[in-house]
Amino acid sequence: MLSLLEANWSTFLLGFWNTILCSLISLFFSLIIGSGFAILETVPNKFWRGVAKVYVEIFRNIPLLVVTMVFYLVLPTYTPLKLTGFQAGTIGLSIYSSAFIAETVRSGIQSVGTGQMEGARSNGMTYWQAMRYVILPQAFRIVIPPLGNQFVNLIKNSSILAFVAGFDLMYQGDIVASNTFQTIPSYVLVGLFYLILTLPLSYYMQYLEKKGV
């Protein structure tokens, strides 16, 4: 297996880098989008709560592959928008993950006592100021462990890029396996690369949970 890794090091390294890049971009945008919809799910306005709920329910219940294929195949067919496999996979992963993050953050917001919002409003803060400076900081402290699990799942789900020629770790592993006919060692190496990404994050989240951050 070491000889296979040495002979195909650049191929695996390219896939590893693309997986990291896709994961980081998706982490950033899914956290922003998800947090935004989580806030909308808790606002007093029924219309915006409904919009957020529809968004979350749609993307939580559609397979990631379908969401990705919409951006990779459907949009280029009916619009001038042309996306690479990497771009389509990253966008699909960001939107898909944001729905789960929205539910996680929403639960954190609703776990903060209602007295916190009332106290902030009585001190002259607007609803959005109270949400930004009082509610959200407490909510994120509460949801760190489940958010960590969502981030780990996002990294593993980045393998969706393999279905759209996104040159990620799984895609490169497929190439190595088909070229060398060493299927099992190739995918074992792919699994080890994923462990390099996910295990430190998992242990760090466990550390934060125990520390009570």
Give a verbal description of the structure.
This is Glutamine ABC transporter permease. By secondary structure, the protein is an all-alpha fold. About 80% of the residues lie in helices and about 0% in strands. The protein contains 10 helices and no strands. The chain has helices at about 1-5, 10-40, 45-60, 65-80, 85-110, 115-120, 125-140, 145-155, 170-180, 185-210. The longest helix is centred in the first third of the chain and has 32 residues, at about 10-40. The mean pLDDT is about 90.
Question: What topology emerges from the helices and strands here?
Answer:
Blueprint (H helix, E strand, L loop, with lengths): L1 H6 L1 H32 L5 H15 L3 H15 L6 H27 L2 H9 L4 H16 L1 H14 L11 H12 L2 H29 L2
What's a quick, concise take on this entry?
82% of the residues lie in helices and 0% in strands. It has 213 residues and is mainly alpha-helical.
